[in-house]
# Entry
Amino acid sequence: MSDSLSKSSTNRSVVLLAGGVGGAKMAEGLAGLGNVDLTVIGNVADDDEFHGLWVSPDIDTLTYSLSGRINRQQGWGVADEALRGLSVLKELGEETWMTLGDRDLGLHIYRSSRLRKGHARQAIADDISRAFGACCRIVLSTEDVVQTRVKTEAGWMSFQEYFVREHCAPEVLELSYRGLDVAAPNPAALDAIANADVIVIAPSNPLVSIEPILSIAGMRTAIAGAKAARIAVCPFVNGKAIKGPADRMMVSLGFEATVGAVARRYAGIADTLLINTSDRAFCGDVKSAGLCAVACNIVMTSLEDKVALARTVLATALSSEACGVVP
Amino acid sequence: MSDSLSKSSTNRSVVLLAGGVGGAKMAEGLAGLGNVDLTVIGNVADDDEFHGLWVSPDIDTLTYSLSGRINRQQGWGVADEALRGLSVLKELGEETWMTLGDRDLGLHIYRSSRLRKGHARQAIADDISRAFGACCRIVLSTEDVVQTRVKTEAGWMSFQEYFVREHCAPEVLELSYRGLDVAAPNPAALDAIANADVIVIAPSNPLVSIEPILSIAGMRTAIAGAKAARIAVCPFVNGKAIKGPADRMMVSLGFEATVGAVARRYAGIADTLLINTSDRAFCGDVKSAGLCAVACNIVMTSLEDKVALARTVLATALSSEACGVVP
# Structure
C-alpha cells in the first residue's frame, strides 16, 4: 500500500521486455510497485493463426495478467473459462490441441476482425488493454508478423506446434524467426526504450521470447544506446528453467542453461543480471561476461514474491552499489 | 414407428423450401416420416457478417434442428449454450444484439475459416451436416451472397438488424434482395427439384424466406416445370402469422395476411395450399388463385404435430382427391 501511496511525479519510467507467463509475473510485480510508469514490450513471435483467427499468446497472457483476468491456476488463459466453441470445432474435424476457451475466442474474433479491416496491431492491442482495464501499456515489439519456427527430428514446425501440440517433448535442433529479417520495430517500443529510466529483461525464455524482440532491426541498438539502467532477471535457477523448455532448448542448441550463458547473451543489452541466491557461486561467470551479478530470490509464486522481486530489480538497477547478494 | 419400418425402395423424394424456425419444424416432421428422402432447400438471404464471421441463421436453424441440437425452448440456437465469447466482444465495444452463443460461434468460426480458404458454401454445409449427424441433406439456394434488405422509416437496414436488433418493431416499407439479380441457383437445388416426387413450400415467411429462394434465376421455372406434386403450407392462421412478422409485413407491403394472398403468391409454384381448419371458409379464395385448398391443423407444437402435418402434406400432395378438409 505504501508503494501506491508514493505514486508521484517521481515515478520511474520502466520498460519490461517480456514473453508470456514469466514476463507477465515480472510485469505484475513491477505494476504492483505503484511508483512506476510501466511499459511492457511483448513478444509477438509465438503468434499463430488457428481456425482463421489470429492468436497472440504472449500478448494475451500479459493482457489477461495485467487486467486481473488471468487463470491463476494455469498462468495463462482467462478465469471462468469454458470450451463450448472449441468442442464444436473439434466435432467439425478441426485440430483442437491449442486450447482456446470461449472468452479467449471472443478476444481472437475481435482482433482478427479488426486486423482484416486493416487496423494497426498496436491500436488493437491498446483498445483491448483499455477495455479490459490493464494497469499498464502493453506494446508489441513490431507491427509485422514474426514467427518463431522450431526444427526437431520431425522437421520444422511452428512454435505453438512444438510448445502446445508436442508439449516441448522433441529436442530442438534449430530455431528460426520467420519475418524477422524484414520486421520493423514498433515506434512505440523504441519511444519507450528511449525514454526509460530502467529497462528490465524479464525471466522469459531467452531464445523464443527475448531473442525475437532484441533481433528486430534497431531494437538491440536502441537498448544498447539507451540512457536507462538495464537489468535482466535470469530465467534459470540451479541450471533449470523456472518454467518451460528454455533449459533444454539452450543445451540442445549448444548453449548452457546457466547464469553465465544468460549473461553472455545479454552482454551489451543489460548492465546487471539478477540471479537466484542459490546460484551465487556463479557470480564470477556473470562478471566475466561484463555484467554485474546480484543474487536474491528470483522465484515468483505469490503476488508478494512478484512485488518483492520487482522492488529488488528497481533498487538494483538504480543503485550504483557493487554486485552482491541482496538479503 | 410404422413409418420408419416402411422405409424401402418406395421412399418418396421430397424437396422442402424452407426458412428458419417454421421451415425447420416442417423439415423435422417430414424427416420423422421415415419413408421420405428429404432434401431441404434453405434460404441464405438472412445471412450476415458479425465480428468478421459469416452467420447463416436459417441454414443453422435447419442444421441444428435436423441434428437434434436445437434449443427447443427458443426454436433457434443450440442447446447447452453460453455467452462467454459474446460477453468479451461486448466488453470490447462490439455491438452484440445478435445473440451468438459459444457453440454457435464455434460453427461460425469454422464456416468463416473455410470460406476464406475459398471452399464452396455447399461443401461446407455438407461437412457441417455430416459432422453434426443431420438426418437429411440441407441444400443452399445459391452459392452466391443474397441478402434481404429492409426499408423502414429509419432507412434501409439488413434483415437481422430489422429482425433481431429492432425486434421487427418498425413497419416494413420495402424489401430488396441484394445480390439476387446476379445469383445463380445452386445446381444441387435444381437437381433435387428435378428429381422430386413432392415439392413442399414450408409455412415460412413468404416474403423473406421463400421469395429469396424462388426469385433466384431459374428456380421458379424449375419448380413450375417439375414433375413433382407441389404443395405449400400456409404460414397464416386466422390472418396472423404462426410466428414472426410475416403478417404485418404482408399488410404493410400491400398484400394481405390471408390464405388467399398466400395462394396468389404461390400460383404456378404450388398445386395445393394446406390451410388451417379454422380458415376453411376461405377455401374459395385459394381456388380462385388456381390452387387446390385442403384444410387441417397446420400449427406444429410437438414432434407429433410436425409428423402428423408432414403425413397430411405428403398424402395430400400425392392424392388426386378433391380439395377439402382432412379430418
Summary: Confidence is low (pLDDT under 50) at residues 1-8 of chain B.
